[in-house]
Specification:
- The chain has one domain.
- It is mainly α.
- Helix content is 82%, strand content 0%.
- The protein has eight helices and no strands.
- The longest helix has 35 residues, at 124-158.
- The protein has helices at 2-17, 20-34, 38-47, 52-76, 82-86, 91-106, 109-117, 124-158.
C-alpha cells in the first residue's frame, strides 16, 4: 500500500512540474528579468482606474474557474458510458491530472484579489506581470482541460 502512495506522489509531482503551466511560469520568470514596460502599462490599465476593466480583470479568473470546474466534471463523470471510463486502466492517473488542472485555475483567484485590494502598495509592473502569469497559467490549464474533455468524448465514442 505504501508503494502505491509513493508512486502516486511521484506522479503528482511529475504532473505539476512537467506541465505546460509550469513551463509558461518558467518562461515568464525569465521575461521578468528583462523588466519589459508592457507589464507596467498593463498594471495601470487593469487596476489603477475604477472602471469596467477592473471588474472584468477580477471576474475573468473566476469565470475560468467555473468553466474549468464544469469541464472537470464532464471529464470525470461523463453522462454516457461512464462505466467504460471507470474501467479504463489509466483512469486514476487521469483523475489526478484533471484535479491538478483544476488547481491551476484556482491558483490565481486569491493573489489577483490581493493585488486589487492592495493596488496602492504594489508597483504597476508587479501587478501587470503577476496578473499575466497567473491568468496565463489559468488559461493554459483551462485549454488543457478542454482538450482532455474532447479526448474523453472521443474515447467514449470509440468504445461505445
Amino acid at each position: 500500500m505504501k508503494d502505491i502512495w509513493n508512486i502516486k506522489i511521484i506522479f503528482i509531482i511529475r504532473t505539476i512540474f512537467i506541465s505546460p503551466e509550469f513551463i509558461f511560469f518558467l518562461i515568464m520568470m525569465v521575461i521578468n528579468i528583462l523588466k519589459i514596460d508592457f507589464f507596467s502599462t498593463l498594471g495601470i490599465f487593469l487596476f489603477k482606474n475604477d472602471n469596467i476593466i477592473t471588474t472584468l480583470s477580477l471576474g475573468f479568473p473566476a469565470v475560468l474557474l467555473v468553466y474549468a470546474g464544469r469541464l472537470n466534471k464532464n471529464i470525470l463523470q461523463p453522462e454516457d458510458n461512464n462505466k467504460v471510463l471507470l474501467n479504463w486502466p489509466e483512469y486514476s492517473n487521469y483523475k489526478i491530472t484533471s484535479y491538478i488542472g483544476l488547481f491551476f485555475t484556482i491558483l490565481p483567484i486569491l493573489p489577483i484579489f490581493m493585488c486589487w485590494i492592495y493596488k496602492d502598495v504594489y508597483k504597476e509592473y508587479d501587478v501587470g506581470f503577476y496578473y499575466t502569469v497567473l491568468v496565463g497559467m489559468s488559461l493554459i490549464s483551462t485549454a488543457s482541460l478542454y482538450l482532455a474533455h474532447l479526448n474523453v468524448k472521443e474515447y467514449l465514442d470509440k468504445y461505445k
